[in-house]
Structure formats: C-alpha cells, structure tokens
Write a structure and sequence with these properties.
Elements lengths: L1 H9 L1 E5 L5 H13 L3 E4 L9 H10 L2 E6 L1 H5 L1 H12 L3 E6 L10
Parallel strand pairs: 1-2, 1-3, 3-4
C-alpha cells in the first residue's frame, strides 16, 4: 500500500493556469494522463471555486505545472495558488504559453 501511495505522489501534477487558457490546459491534462501522470486540475470556468478542494489538490501533488501568461501574472487567485504551493515547498515546472511574454512580477 505504501508503494502505491508513493507512486501516486511521484507522478502527480497540479496544473496552475489562468482561466483564459482553460481549453489548452484541459488538453494538456489529458495528454499527461495518457502518459501515466495523475493530474490535479481545478476547472476555472465559474466564479465559485472551492478553496478547500484547491488546497487538497495542491497538497497531493508532487509538482506544480505553472502555465505562465500575462493574465496569469496579473491574476490574484493565480498568485495565491503559487504562493500556497511555494509555502509547502512544492517543485515547479514553468511553461510560458505566450512567446512574447516575459514574467516581470512576483
């Protein structure tokens, strides 16, 4: 049983994104799952987000995939996701979704 839990943790990813990129991130989620990853993903298509579910998903993930964009950088909710993940010393993978975008803040 412990090996099973350890394996899930090693191969688990949380996708952090801004809602403008929802469609792309859904496709990304399916591709990662096809390759054996357990993907935690909070669909941000409404104004009501369950913060407890969000934190639980981040807690269970070994890696946070941050989908960077101008909108992501400006979004307070995205920043909160990032800071919560950082607080628990999660590993990050950064993917720039906009070729002309260079992160400037936080």
């Amino acid at each position: 049983f412990n090996t099973f839990i350890e394996q899930i943790t090693k191969n688990s990813i949380f996708i952090s994104y801004e809602k403008k990129h929802l469609d792309f991130c859904i496709l990304l989620k399916y591709k990662l799952e096809e390759n054996g990853f357990l993907v935690y993903f909070l669909k941000k298509d409404s104004n009501s987000i369950n913060i407890n579910q969000l934190r639980s998903n981040i807690d269970k993930s070994s890696v946070i995939l941050v989908c960077l964009s101008q909108e992501y950088e400006k979004c307070n909710f995205c920043r909160s996701e990032f800071e919560y993940s950082e607080l628990f010393k999660k590993k990050f993978i950064f993917s720039n979704l906009e070729t002309s975008f260079e992160p400037k803040y936080w």
